[in-house]
Amino acid sequence: MRHRSLLILTTAITTGALTLSACGSRDDKGGDAGGSKNTTVVIGVDAPLTGDLSPLGQGIKNSTELAIKNANKAKEVPGVTFEMKALDDQGQPTSGQQNATKLTGDKNVVATVGPLNSSVAQSMQQVAQANNMALISPANTTPDLTQGKDWKQNNRKRQFTTYFRTSTTDEVQGAFGGQYAYEKIKAKTVYVIDDQKTYGVGLAAAFAAKFTSLGGKVVGTEHVNPEDRDFKAIVSKAKSTNPDLVFYGGEYPAAAPLSQQLKDGGVKAPTLGGDALYSPHYINLNKKADRDYATSVGKPVEQLDSAKKFIADYKAAGYKDAYEAYGGTAYDAAWAIIQAVKATVTDNDGKLPTDARAKVVEALNKVKFDGVSGPVSFDKYGDTTNTMITAYQVDGTTWKSRHSAEYKG
Amino acid sequence: MHELPQQLANGLILGAMYGLIAIGYTMVYGIVQLINFAHGEIFMVGGFGALTAYLVLPDGTGLLLALPLMIIGGIVASTAIAVAAERFAYRPLRGAPRLAPLITAIGLSIALQQAIWKWYPDAKKARVFPQFQGDAIDILGATVQRGEIFLLVAAPLCMTALGLFVAKTRTGRGMQATAQDPDTAKLMGINTDRIIVIAFAIGATFAAIAAVAHGLKYGQIDFRMGFITGLKAFTAAVLGGIGNIYGAMLGGVVLGVAEALATGYIEEIPGMTQFGGGSWKDVWAFVLLILVLLLRPQGLLGERVADRA
């Protein structure tokens, strides 16, 4: 019997050990603030730079870097040189929290762009708040992060004064999806699947609420694990309910095989998902992606005049990875920080104040400019005031935008 | 119980893949009492080996034509890694306390994942794996994908070949002898070092075949695919009775079918609605494992042997 217990013990240890994937990043040398006239201000980045969400994370990192480069080149804030410090969270809340501690520990970091995942944000908010450091996510969409868990009862309360985001919430995005599914796709029945992560569950709930309030019917619900790649058992269940549409609340690494297996298994309905499906990799990994839908925040970056410069700059910078779904909002998040630093420095006779972080947080509430994704400003919860959403559909091998609208509820 | 044939087929196919990987755990454990936790990564490397073979072939090569070469590519890659791991990571630790090789295996597992992530082109995200074109096939009321046919053919074929090899050949009998008593086997003139290398190589070969099946089935491979799948295969090996090759395959199939049935039907039991569905399938699989280990600590087909550790 002895080695049996060893087997069980080792299984437990390995699971723990391999889940805890930390990433090292040594602190940079302390800035040379004293003496020289030029002050260095560091903008932190926290995003999944490795792992299966790394394409999205790399897009966020590169876009932030681009904003910093442009600000330095244009001398946007006289006397201040911006630098970037990017840390990898691998999409894990535990790594995110370690990174938040690291970033707040570096006194040159005034504010941070990130994270990608709502679940990671939940673990970082406390740390950022305790250290008075602004955290601006280009991608978090869970309403709870800004408005508290009672937002559904319309009992909204700002959770953290230091947390902002340049992407709109699942409440808006999911409801837009529900409306789009009912009115434009003309679906009457839907099978709802989520991945049990903060983002996926919230999006699916908001979608289902709107869809049923319009008169649609949810014929089945299912939950999967985000690491799963085999969904055959779920496909068999979904098939027996014969839905007009399958809604997936989750991210493309699982959504792509799920959609393919659904169609392989004889479910004719297209899949609809949120912004985490809106990636070219969704189509690469899914041979039956044709006719699937995704909603994403903002207007298609390619269609906005304000974005043309961003796209040209991004190309010129020669990044290996594409800017992906959150490049525009990441650029805007970084630019909002730069504008806040500018306001802070201007108010302080051209010098960075000693309590720069707190001043930047204050300034962020008043920031207003025309960004890559549209007009950027934050409301009383820290959410973006821009509620533009676009529905996309896979046409052959690319995403084509079908419908953009400002969601009014 | 609607869709029962389909759910059984789903489970059987998934289970056959677990079984093929479980062979690697069970053979190595049977002979050197080492839990080779890097085996999941050997499986993963096999997948990338097969993909490499496919990519070096001229564009437009039919998949059916490429498949044998992909299998060979996968086997070469995974066997090379497994044999090197045995020679340089495990052999120096033979005779060391049991926890030392175990920790080494965990370290090796992380190292292999990171090596692929770092050096294989574009492996930072999932790589697309070629898949068979064409519609699914109906077998006895169940829909089976073309890619899955490969698994349904390969798994029984491999098991038969392995069974014959172990029972009939000199090397196979040498393996049995080494498993029973390595010291006596050595005294009888069996080169146990060679036997151990062969056990690793066979495990890696089966893992590579499973990896090709994985790629054909899901159309993608990534550097982390060996972790969860490896853990499941290890569970299958324990469930079937670790050390027993038929037990590994049986354990795999039982585990796969249990997962499919748990996803499909648990929630139809009155009062169990919230414990059903895809999110709870792993829980039910491990409940099954615990029940089996409580009633039959040696696993389904394992023999009750005196513990040598």
From TrEMBL, chain A:
It comes from Streptomyces netropsis (Streptoverticillium netropsis). Keywords: Signal. This is Branched-chain amino acid transport system substrate-binding protein. Residues 40-395 form the Leucine-binding protein domain. InterPro entries: Leu-bd, Peripla_BP_I. Belongs to the leucine-binding protein family. It comes from the Bacteria. Pfam families: Peripla_BP_6. CDD domains: PBP1_ABC_LIVBP-like.
